[in-house]
Amino acid sequence: MLENFLIGTYTRKSSQGIYTIELDTNTNQLSEASLLVNAQNPTYLGISAANNLYSVVKDGSQGGIGAYNLDTTPVTMLNSVLGAGSPPAYVAIDEQRQLVFSGNYHQGTITVFKINDDGSITQTDQVTHQGLTGPAKEQDAPHVHYCDLTPDNRLVVCDLGMDLVAVYDISADGKLTAVSQYHNEPGFGSRHIKFNPVNPNTAYVLGELSSKLEVLKYNQSLGEFTHQQTISTIPTDWTAHNGAAAIHISADGKYIYTSNRGQDTIAVFKVLSDQSVELIQSISTEGSFPRDFSFDRLEKFIVCANQETDNLTLFERNSVTGRLTLLQKDVRCPEGVCVKIKP
Known about the structure:
The chain is 0% helix and 57% strand. By secondary structure, the chain is an all-beta fold. It has a domain of 155 residues: YVTN repeat-like/Quinoprotein amine dehydrogenase (Methylamine Dehydrogenase, Chain H, 7 Propeller). The strands form 7 sheets. Strands 1, 2, 3, 4 and 29 form a 5-stranded antiparallel sheet that branches. The chain has a 4-stranded antiparallel sheet with strand order 5-6-7-8, with no helix packed on it. Strands 9-10-11-12 form a 4-stranded antiparallel sheet, with no helix packed on it. A hairpin with a 7-residue loop joins strand 1 and strand 2. The relative contact order is 0.14.
């Protein structure tokens, strides 16, 4: 069986935009990457059920979100919504309300867009974070790094600059209302969060600056988080720089995977009966700066993008033990920073 992935990239060196690759699950091999969309710095991607692509885009001194129709050959842009300054860092899709969310790291904003009937987008709201920031040098201002849906269809936002996980209610017409704020330990640098698909009242938030994983309890009636556990994603004797990046959880809720940029590993955690976690494996990504990775459809494989060494790595995943085994490395893909499986 062939499975298709899209790779978002920076275009600072040789990359030209968004690439596509194929995984042959019979031969356990990745194909060479081929250019799908010519674009500037399409660093994060979202793919809708209608097979439309929503991507971070940059155009000169402006940044925003672009909408593309993946059913056409070549892929055609439907429209883009741009504003002054740096482009966003994250994109998410709300199928039920037909909305797109973007989080802007440099501007500290969450922006909401309505998906129109033709797949194009129109901005409906924008919230700017303000307030106290953390002690690390990277925390000079609010830095929204993630915004996506909670299991009860609210919006959860990670702000790296403020050591903050915030929750918002979302109206049908795409307006946000603040519900709650959870503050991580100072210098944690909250980057991404995932909810346990089997136990949706538990969430796992990844700290980029601290290289730590927090286990949180989520109260759906109040839309609030409380702390359960904090654990490191790297060994205690690791003293060089490291920045935690992506986090994904298996569909059975038993294993969590996080990437480490610096140690250049994927850390594997086992979820225990009380939803706390223990580290069971740390495996090299066979490249430098693994910013993102993705399961295949059946979660038998993981495809990882190494940004600085321009290569993809393929791992086989044991669904019983959760452990990873290297299958393939040195698959060229320039400046890969986002890996998305096509629905």
